[in-house]
Amino acid sequence: MNKEELANRLYEISLVCFETGSPWKKEQFFSFLTQPFHHYVTVTEEDNIIGFLLLTHLFEEAEIELIGVSPDYQRTGMGSKLLEKTKVLLADTEAESIFIEVRKSNQKAQQFYQKEGFTMIGERKQYYHHPKEDALIWQLIL
């Protein structure tokens, strides 16, 4: 699958993963896939992508830019699988921690990250738009 096809597939999944639709446009996925320091992991079933994690890694820090799992596969361990694949990807690097921002109202995501060993370390006021909302910053020490 070339980068354009992958960007299209990730966009299609993201349309149904998030309550407010895809937070990124198709072009943003393509741009992400073509930039240095950006990485991705996927989980598949029968050659179909059912989940993805987009990551920026620079020196000792990595940041999850976007993570999504098709609704039919949510709460089946796919998010944990994506994080495990990400840890493997970062294992031979100098990465010391992974960060992610989560909507303050997204209790399901917060419970997931806490279960996975992340700690809430801060807050960004008015970080999200459509709708406007604060973000909580979570960190996982590797």
From TrEMBL:
<comment type="similarity">
    <text>Belongs to the acetyltransferase family. RimI subfamily.</text>
</comment>
<keyword id="KW-0963">Cytoplasm</keyword>
<keyword id="KW-0689">Ribosomal protein</keyword>
<dbReference type="InterPro" id="IPR000182">
    <property type="entry name" value="GNAT_dom"/>
</dbReference>
<dbReference type="GO" id="GO:0005840">
    <property type="term" value="C:ribosome"/>
</dbReference>
<keyword id="KW-0012">Acyltransferase</keyword>
<protein>
    <recommendedName>
        <fullName>[Ribosomal protein bS18]-alanine N-acetyltransferase</fullName>
        <ecNumber>2.3.1.266</ecNumber>
    </recommendedName>
</protein>
<dbReference type="InterPro" id="IPR050680">
    <property type="entry name" value="YpeA/RimI_acetyltransf"/>
</dbReference>
<dbReference type="InterPro" id="IPR006464">
    <property type="entry name" value="AcTrfase_RimI/Ard1"/>
</dbReference>
<comment type="function">
    <text>Acetylates the N-terminal alanine of ribosomal protein bS18.</text>
</comment>
<feature type="domain" description="N-acetyltransferase">
    <location>
        <begin position="1"/>
        <end position="142"/>
    </location>
</feature>
<keyword id="KW-0808">Transferase</keyword>
<dbReference type="InterPro" id="IPR016181">
    <property type="entry name" value="Acyl_CoA_acyltransferase"/>
</dbReference>
<dbReference type="Pfam" id="PF00583">
    <property type="entry name" value="Acetyltransf_1"/>
</dbReference>
<keyword id="KW-0687">Ribonucleoprotein</keyword>
